[in-house]
Amino acid sequence: EPWALEATDLRKTFATGRAGLRRTKVSAVDGVSLRLRAGESLGIVGESGCGKSTLARMLVGLESPDSGNIQIAGRPIGDNRRELSRHVQMVFQDPYTSLDPRMTVQELISEPLTVHRIGTAAERRDRVAELLRLVGLSPEMMARYPHQFSGGQRQRIGIARALALEPRVLICDEPVSALDVSVQAQVVNLLRDLQRRMGIALVFIAHDLSVVRHIADRTAVMYLGRLAETGDTADVFDSPAHPYTQALLSASPVVDPTRRRRLADRIVLAGDPPNPTNPPSGCRFHTRCHIAVAECATTQPQMLSVGGGWAAACHLAQREPADSSTS
Ligand code: SF4
Ligand code: MG
């Protein structure tokens, strides 16, 4: 069984303007590799500007990588956007701007089917009714327009539209951060439920760690365009191996207080991330790392295995001692 999604060494740089005679560039994503099985969910976390959204846009074909490649179910996608859209769909952050206000719900949800010439008009209408029920909305709502719905309902419409083609992979970029807190959990639970029932590979991008802990089987932590740590969500959240993950979790209330004792001290993440047009040499985290050594400023750390399917890009990352892995 091939990986549902396999992204290898993706890189993306944007030109941002000029500083005197020099063109300035941002290395938004710098060598990120990810693999995901059908029915598995991967959370991607990191501060804003870490490259999460650029990564998401490459995975769904809205940006093409400068280098690296993406395979869906073992097949390279290359530049075939149409083929990619058949298998990889996206749920966007803002349900207020991502749905065309001039289209009815029926038109919005059936558009991907129309574009791919799937079914007759009557069959598409039936499919829209089925999709509306799937996301917890009434099929009677299909003649209405987006402005007649709440934010949570609009995001359900966005999810129905993204599922219309039965994609293998669903990319969700901060899908609940624009919603009222009171409806966030409902939408997250809906996504998790649909993902499991339909066997979709889900990539869930969020800055809210508690949401990722809830929905993701595995978690990837990004810092300034690179992966800091990847592993099973329970491992990453309960005993983070990378100092940046430790700092992120230490700053957030999601860690179980009995586990938090395992961190030597409460780690304060000082300041904002450095300017991505001029990222630090060596380990990009070294300017904020509380345990940096001289090597960190000169040598980029590679991903080191710290356990089964668990890795961290840190010169000082160590395999978990055998005695604590059983506790
Ligand atoms: Fe900190 Fe060095 Fe590890 Fe980077 S490589 S996280 S600077 S200890
Ligand atoms: Mg973003």
Automatic annotation (TrEMBL):
CDD domains to which the protein is assigned, alphabetical: ABC_NikE_OppD_transporters (cd03257)
InterPro entries for this protein: AAA+_ATPase, ABC_transp_ATP-bind, ABC_transporter-like_ATP-bd, ABC_transporter-like_CS, Oligopep_ABC_C, P-loop_NTPase
This protein's UniProt keywords: ATP-binding, Nucleotide-binding, Transport
Example of a GO MF term: ATP binding
SUPFAM superfamilies found in the cross-reference section: P-loop containing nucleoside triphosphate hydrolases
Record keyword Oxidoreductase present: no
Domain ABC transporter residue range list: 5-249
Similarity section: Belongs to the ABC transporter superfamily.
NCBIfam families the record matches: oligo_HPY (TIGR01727)
Protein's name in the database: ABC transporter ATP-binding protein
